[in-house]
Amino acid sequence: MIVNSLRTSLVQILFLALSLEALAQTSVNKKEEVPLKLWYQKSASNWNEALPIGNGRLGAMIFGGVAEEHLQLNEATLWSGGPANLDPNPKAKQYLGSIREALLKEDYKKAESLTSMLQGLFTESYLSLGDLYIRHNLKGEATNYQRELDINHAVARTTFQVGDVIYTREYFSSAPDQVIALRITASKEASLNLTLKASSELQHNVAAAGDEMTIKGKAPSHVDPSYLQTMEIPVVYNDVSGCKGMRYAWSVKLKNKGGKVTAAGDSLSVNNATEVTIYISAATSFNGFDKCPDSEGVDEQALMNKYLTQSTVQDFSSLRERHVADYQSFFNRVSLILDGNKDVKLPTNERLLAYTKGAADTGLEALYFQFGRYLLISSSREGGRPANLQGIWNHHLRAPWSSNYTVNINTEMNYWMAESCNLSECHLPLMSLIKDVAVTGAETAKNFYGLDGWTLHHNTDIWAATNPVSGSPSWANWPMGGAWLSRHLWEHYQYTGDRKFLEQVAYPLMKGSAAFCVSWLIEDGKGHLVTAPSTSPENVFITADGSKGTVSVATTMDMAIIRDLLNNVIRASEVLNTDTDLRAAWKEKKQRLLPYQIGAKGNLQEWYKDWEDAEPQHRHISHLYGIFPADEITPALTPDLAKAVRRTMELRGDGGTGWSKGWKINVWARLWDGNHAHKLIREQLTLTGVEGTDYANGGGTYPNLFDAHPPFQIDGNFGGTSGMTEMLLQSHQGELHLLPALPDGWSVGSVAGLRARGAFEVSLSWERKLLKTATIKSLDGQSCTIRSSAPVKVKGAKFTIAKSGDSYLTTFPTSKGQLYTISPR
Length: 825
Ligand code: FUC
Prior knowledge:
The longest helix is centred in the middle third of the chain and has 26 residues. The strands form eight sheets. A nine-stranded antiparallel β-sheet has the order 1-6-7-8-9-18-15-12-11. It has a seven-stranded antiparallel β-sheet with strand order 2-3-4-5-10-17-16. It is α+β, with helices and mostly antiparallel strands. Helix 2 packs antiparallel against helix 3, helix 10 packs parallel to helix 13 and helix 13 packs across helix 14. The chain contains 19 helices and 36 strands. The site of alpha-L-fucopyranose has 11 residues, from loops.
């Protein structure tokens, strides 16, 4: 008993010492140190219990097994296939006229069947790189087991004891050194006996020599999406052109203190060592969306070796120091404390279970918020690819929905929090994707419709495929993906004030998207401009005669996206003082767009006519785009429409998938209903183990805090973090709204380092749900208007106060770089 508790204390002291060491190694100024750890007393028994690490490109899921450690590995550019066929259906164009004719005659059945002729190929698949297994030869049972993911430092650890030896494993994925590093130590000399084996579901070769093991292969030329069961062999390796199937290579190298390393064919062993550091390097031959990945590919082995060489000259501590400093330069920008972030002395899975059963745990909510930030920093880095449906973490050969970029909600949701949570650089990979799809999308606009500009349909991949894929028109034939993504370009400018970005990157892309939308619009014969064919992503309507359909005219989402894009491109042209004639034309088109309609139930109408939904509680809330992510509808500016949104939210209900709940949290926050938003946060944080697909009653959180669609899909995590931010601070329509949707459960707290449109950095504290103090740092010298529920004063500037409904609007000029303090009057 005494021995056991002594051992427990020893392990605790060791964990503390390791944490302090990591802390001491960073000079970055942490605003407030709060315990931010996921920890467990058992190893992961499945993938949704394993812990993710990543540097934007290299990802690993760590299982933490005692006798056998398992790291499932990913490399963000490893996809099947090659550059997209940009004209896969040369006959497509000929159908547009007849679809529009059928729609004019309200023959929705015919329109739908003709629309399904206007389709091309599905996207390719994001792949798993492989698995590293480390057999740990131990004599005896393990005690005092603990594994954790410390998101203050982005370092994972596993510790346990066998006999009188304490074993510690530490892991991280380093962005500055582009390597995954894992150090295993034994507290007693010469006690480490390990055998490492590599495997992959992809075709591959393994060769081990000296202290290194290398795995090489070529990715499939095609992977059929998992929802299709049409191909007898769904994973195809038949590239003869050098243009379909990228090469990949990864390598595992050991450095040992004590003992001896031996290589045997396909494995590495180390015996009687005291400490072993394992370096994992990987690269693919991917060389851009338009390059044949094999014949025109980069030299992946040279790249892999370069990363390995630059890392192995450093020891584990110096790699870790550089990693932690880099990670914290992002992570430490924001802190959130809700009711003191009380730590609950329970392993994370038990803590989540207690919360699921109704326990209050604001510390867990704050951890979940920061975990979303951790995941974005770990899966989306400047110069790399954007986070896909699973970020960068995927263990399937045929992942759900190909783990691609689904842009009718999911990809955008991944980035809702990027700017507001002060991770603007992590938003940039999405901008790169937009640049790519604008090129291929111009071909799709021309080849499928004979139209101007560029378009993207409901999903894309690393090859920037933009065509409508084959499948139900309810999701495939939706050409609004490019226009939705374009709002991210404008958002990046709004949050940063970066005019150069606006001028050189954002505006030309937004203009191209607007050109497509304008040429896509047609007259409805009643004075309005409408879209046709038109769908409301994935939903089905029932017309007055009882027939079901998916293709119609001018869905609310289409009109809202186009209105939003025109608004933004008009504003961008004003900021840049350019394109006066074009701006006038955009304004004229915008005036004539079919406006919002309120249905008989008092709801915001989803369809052109006031039709019933086949599934009234459908998970998509596409018609609410105007309140979030756009800002056309607000309780202050358009109270009637906001009321209709609320009614729609009531009719739609609180159910749905993880991402659906994520979207709803943001909408309730924009409706200034903090308690309803908080109810959905609680539901999102329901412990689940469900792995299959559930479209209607899903949601929930796996033991590793990954969001469940189900299955795992990362958008719900990011959507949740975004929603929590929207509850604390909103900054659309030219106003910084402080504490717009505080729930009763967050009566006291503080948040530091959030970003707001107008290029401001904002910190807030509150008590009894009332603002205590706020500081606003102006990054661009723009004028600032604050919306607050009680009057405030501004230190350091002359301000004016106006009333708006029940709120106060306080306006003051700012100077670039200045900090302003706001307090109640
Ligand atoms: C959309 C959603 C599904 C899923 C898929 C990846 O099609 O409707 O629920 O999230 O994307």
